[in-house]
Amino acid sequence: MMGITNENGSINYSVDVLANIVGISTMECYGVVGMASKNASDGFWELIRGENLSKGVKINSKDNNINIELYIIVEYGTKISVIANNIIQKIKYNLENYTGLKVSSITVNVQGVRV
After folding, report:
1. Are 95 and 24 in contact (CB under 8 A)?
2. What pLDDT digit, counting tens, does each position of 72-89 carry?
3. Of 19, 21, 47, 54, which alpha carbon lies 20 to 30 A from 1's?
């Protein structure tokens, strides 16, 4: 649980809620085909869409600073550095605006390219 406290009380967010915000924000970015999750049985990365977007997101918190690591699959023919920068900007903006928590780092791992 991560949260903020002020004179009126406190608000706590589960990691799943934060991961869903990150997943949805990522999927809104141009050039992203989907999130990626490692299949434990065969070690391959699989494409995730829809309800399970949070499976491609890892969130760690230290002193109310959030560190995010996400795994994505991008569209062939797009500039990966531009896509990654757009994702970072969008996640940071959305998460800080929706929750009031501070994002200290975002790492985008591109696991594949799809046509």
Report:
1. no
2. 999 999 999 999 999 999
3. 47
The strand pair at 57-62 and 32-38 is best described as: unpaired
Q: Say how far apart CA 20 and CA 37 lie, in whole Å.
A: 14
Read off the amino acid at residue 16: D
Place of tokens 């934060």: 18
Q: Per the confidence metrics, is the pTM higher than 0.90? A: no
Sign of CA dihedral 53, 55, 57, 62: positive
Q: Which domains does the chain have, with CATH numbers?
A: 2-114 (3.30.70.1350)
Distance CA 23, CA 91 (A): 9
Query: DSSP secondary-structure letter at 8?
Result: T
